[in-house]
Amino acid sequence: xxxxxxxxxxxxxxxxxxxxxxxxxxxxxxxxxxxxxxxxxxxxxxxxxxxxxxxxxxxxxxxxxxxxxxxxxxxxxxxxxxxxxxxxxxxxxxxxxxxxxxxxxxxxxxxxxxxxxxxxxxxxxxxxxxxxxxxxxxxxxxxxxxxxxxxxxx
Length: 154
Prior knowledge:
The chain is an alpha+beta fold.
């Protein structure tokens, strides 16, 4: 059973690498929309924050006028609770918009913090992947060595 668990442990570093890739893409998409998106002012339709300890996010709903005269409406855009106080009480927000992009809307006021959070998560998950990889490598090597010693003593 221990050997099975040691083999399964190899999944963890690969999962952390996938998380790093996802967060790196998010950081890249945030920055791309920030630099290449159209700047406009969004109307805040709804703002919700939770003070419950088990809910670590809130949301904001926005109506965004586009340069071509159309309107982009996004309901309940999730945001971490740590970023929500910066938006509290505001009826309009400066945003950058790139319709059709994977990160269509970037709220200017929180973008630098949001980008730093995503890049920090890349580093943390890569560090975790390296640590788990080293641990899995060592543990599996130890189990192989122990199994070889038991066979040679028989």
